[in-house]
Amino acid sequence: MGNVPEDKVIHDYLKRYFGFDTFKGPQEPIIKNVLAGRDTFVLMPTGGGKSLCYQLPAVMKEGTAIVISPLIALMKNQVDAMRNFSTGDDVAHFLNSSLNKTEINKVKKDVISGVTKLLYVAPESLTKEENIDFLKNITVSFYAIDEAHCISEWGHDFRPEYRRIRPIVDTIGRAPIIALTATATPKVQHDIQKNLGILEADVFKSSFNRPNLYYEVRSKVDATKEIIKYIKNNPGKSGIVYCLSRKKVEELAETLKVNGIKALPYHAGMDSSTRTQNQDKFLMEEADVIVATIAFGMGIDKPDIRYVIHYDIPKSLEGYYQETGRAGRDGGEGRCIAYYSYNDIQKLEKFMQGKPIAEQEIGKQLLLETVSYAESSICRRKTLLHYFGEEYKQENCEACDNCLHPKTQFEGSEYVVNVLEAVVAVKEKFKADHIANILAGKATSAIKSYKHHKLEIFGIGEEKDEKFWNMVIRQALIAKLLTKDIENYGLLKLTPKGKEYLEKPTEFMLIEDHDYSDAEEEEGGGFGARTAAMDEELFSILKDLRKKISKQKNVPPFVIFQDPSLEDMAIQYPVTIDELQNISGVGAGKAQRYGKEFVEVIRKYVEEKEIIRPLDMVVKSVVNKSGLKVYIIQSIDMKRPLEDIAEAKGLDMDELLSEIEAIVNSGTRINLDYYIDMVIDEERQHDIYSYFREEAETDSLEEAINALGSEFEEEEIRLIRIKFLSEMGN
């Protein structure tokens, strides 16, 4: 044990270097522990002030503290912060792949001279021979391992190179180790301590409860539109929207921008200068919203983030907790809203295929925890804290959707007894979904291979489905009647309390799960599921208008707008040309050419009837800049044969014609004469064209085939229909 300086000295340093008068939470005992030269494990939720726990002792102790940190952006952030506290820039440095030779030499010179108190190193740089040789020659005051959950494959950001830290520490020279993380289940914590060889370390755990955060899970219907509405109702507030894929980040950021929201994208695929720029704009409040993949937010010290929205549900509850933890760090408002659809979970499972089996097993279990969090109707806080090994005693947290809008409870002791008996019947050697299938009487191949369909308890609860039984299992876990053996793939076992309950069952109130099965994925920035009813009266007014214009212009009505477009107008009530462009099947071309009279009529109708328009109409979708459309249009301009275009894009002719039809329907003019003249002789062209021109009532392909008879090929009719619609309508 080293000598710990007196409290007064520690407080002087705190004031002089960091400008604080008091410590926050358990910071003081942690700092004293590090100063005394003891190994230390710190579990402190996001926003609790972890960094100070190693920064202050580093400044006070002799030598240089080596801080191992996973992200370059995070190091830069921390080094800048340290330099702000100090008079000289040499108090903190980082060593990573972003530095050139000259910069590296400057860092080494400062470290050797003893002025540098903190040296931030990426785990990858730590393993380099030349860095190990250099570090062997300096006085290391202690090692701080930040974001230590990266060590554990059960953590949400597993980094294999993190598992090599301990042998390297031994090579450089042992000094005290302080490991810090914001999220760790008991399992992950043990894994970290074991791997770093600090099982004897003093452990400091802060509560995971963040009383100022409000948690809500919504069904993923029209999520883009909902998010835009939410952000517009919270003007000037800072927020983060998380998506799983880089593509979705780009799309969503673009859609928010088009709708007048100051949003920027952030993901690992962008070049680092743009990324840093976007992060700085967000910190400087030049942007209100960052749309990001999980790469964003580690160590972001913005205290006033007011909402964190998950467009996609994350892969694990650790990830979810860490990301939501970036809201309301100043203790003020922080709303955490996640959009959930089971489709997303299935997508995530697909991503895992191809990984080693052990990794897939871990990934699946982490996903199941996320599913139960989302679908459960129990207090969200209770579920989250239980996951992190902490008990939340209050009945109602008054700050989550499940507590504010509780579902009716029902007495379910016999169901709980059935679950416990089934776990015992299979000798505590199976997982939750296996037990649920046994009770629901579902003879899956796994159940047959273990002959569990012959058990007395098989099908005892077949009037309920396996989803219901999974819900009972979850609530028995939270009540600590069951426990999950994570070491062994999540096998269920009875706790002493569970055995007691089996002998003497008492009343047990259950709550039905949420049903999100109607959640649908939306495509692009469109309107997703149509839920609104069409205004019949307006629809017929618009049909009359279309007829009138078709007579004036001497073209069939369907050339102007097709029925689905009119129906959409009768749902959305567009009153400007801009809004009209958002109607399905109406592109910029058509809106400019025919739109004026339509929006006039709708505007008048809305005023007379005092209609409250769905405000959601404000959602402008991003023009689909899909490369395919552009490619097709350019290729046709260059008069390339359609077969070549189709082959180049891996489409068959049918698919290519559908794409061309969509382009024409939204108002872009296309000239296919060069190709049509090549494949259809003039007389046949004339017959088909005059059918559309004189006889056709709609643009239906079936009607055209029936009217023209079997001597014409479907492909010919489609080609001439494209020519006709393009010439007449566009």
Kindly describe this structure.
This protein has 730 residues and is an alpha/beta fold. It folds into 5 domains: 7-205, P-loop containing nucleotide triphosphate hydrolases (Rossmann fold), CATH 3.40.50; 213-403, P-loop containing nucleotide triphosphate hydrolases (Rossmann fold, 3-Layer(aba) Sandwich); 408-511, Arc Repressor Mutant, subunit A (Orthogonal Bundle), CATH 1.10.10.10; 536-618, DNA polymerase, domain 1, CATH 1.10.150; 627-729, Arc Repressor Mutant, subunit A. Helix content is 48%, strand content 11%. It contains 34 helices and 17 strands. The strands form 4 sheets. A 7-stranded parallel β-sheet has the order 3-4-2-5-6-1-7, with helices on both faces. Strands 8-13-12-9-11-10 form a 6-stranded parallel β-sheet, with helices on both faces. Helix 2 packs parallel to helix 3, helix 23 (536-553) crosses helix 25 and helix 30 (653-665) runs parallel beside helix 34. The protein is globular. The chain starts with 6 loop residues before the first helix and ends with a helix. The relative contact order is 0.06. The model is unreliable at 523-531 (pLDDT under 50).
